[in-house]
Amino acid sequence: MEATATETTAEITTEAAAQSTVTSIAGLDTEAITLDCQAEKIFYGDFLAVRDSHVPIVRNQITGFIGPSGCGKSTVLKSINRMNDLIPGFRFMGKVHFHGMDIYDKKVDPVAVRRNIGMVFQQPNPFSMSIYENVAFGLRLNRFKGNMDEKVEKALRGAALWDEVKDKLKNNGLSLSGGQQQRLCIARAIATEPRVLLMDEPCSALDPIATRQIEELMVQLKERFTVAIVTHNMQQAMRVADQTAFFAVDISRGGRTGYLVEMGATKELFENPQEQLTKEYLHGEFS
Q: Do the beta carbons of residue 261 and residue 278 sit within 8 Å?
């Protein structure tokens, strides 16, 4: 019998669920891995976008995805919470283990997946509604019955935004500055208390001051959440990421297919990369 959305959610969030069956990679403690993405092949129609990318995400750490444009890092990130399902022609071959369940199993409700694996996008995208309602949006969607005011305040505090907006919660979210809008989107994402928070180039549209604020916030957030971030800024990866995955593009067969070259502790990867391609990228020899 098909599992209901409620049953699926319970299965995904059960603390006692078995851990991922990932083998050791880059010396990681497998019991610390909260999510294991094994992307064998990812297609958009007939186009092979990504191949051979095994990315374990460690609990309460920040995992950074770096690499040149078109290498598939955002595609892999969005596959982790099935956001790519919304794109016509998308096809995922592999597994994503989350608390012992493959989220691509036919019994799993993608909505339940996204409830537990939140997403913050490249461009701040607050809704044209009040600051309060922006944060409450996901809670209302999930039929939260508790104290909404407390939940909204907790999320805004978690996004380091409460002190700046507590006296103007009825103002439109679009009235905030770019950096504040991105923190509002983070508050909206964490209000439902996901287990994992995905961030796709969250600072690319921000000025240096706002970028610093978001980076400081990410470091705070990993105390409560497991975080994965795509960034084009290698210095940013060095500043915030505990683990870093480097992706490159395979053009040997006339196409452009992204793949994982190397992954490891950030300091080790930047100071002592094991693959020649990683060395060349970090030294600016290709982009």
A: yes
Q: Are 35 and 28 in contact (CB under 8 A)?
A: no
Residue 52 · residue 245 · CB < 8 Å: no
Domain count, the chain: 1
| Closest CA relative to residue 196, chosen from 52, 35, 75, 70 | 35
Pairing of strands 243-250, 257-265: antiparallel
Residues 6+ positions from 181 with CB-CB distance below 8 Å: 124, 126, 173, 174
Chain center to CA of 210: 19
Q: What is the CATH number of the domain that holds 201?
A: 3.40.50.300
User: pLDDT tens track of the chain, all 287 residues?
Assistant: 334 443 443 334 333 333 333 334 555 667 789 999 999 999 999 999 999 999 999 999 999 999 999 999 999 999 999 999 999 999 999 999 998 899 999 999 998 899 899 999 999 999 999 999 999 999 998 889 999 999 999 999 999 999 999 999 999 999 999 999 999 999 999 999 999 999 999 998 899 999 999 999 999 999 999 999 999 999 999 999 999 999 999 988 778 999 999 999 999 999 999 999 999 999 887 65
The amino acid at residue 137 is: F
Q: Residue 210 sits in which domain range?
A: 5-128+196-282
Structural domain includes residue 168: no
Contact 242, 266 (CB under 8 A): yes
Kindly provide the residue ranges of all beta strands, DSSP E only, lying in the chain, ordered along the sequence: 33-44, 47-58, 62-66, 90-98, 101-102, 117-120, 196-200, 226-230, 243-250, 257-265
Asked, for residue 147, whether it belongs to a domain, the answer is: no
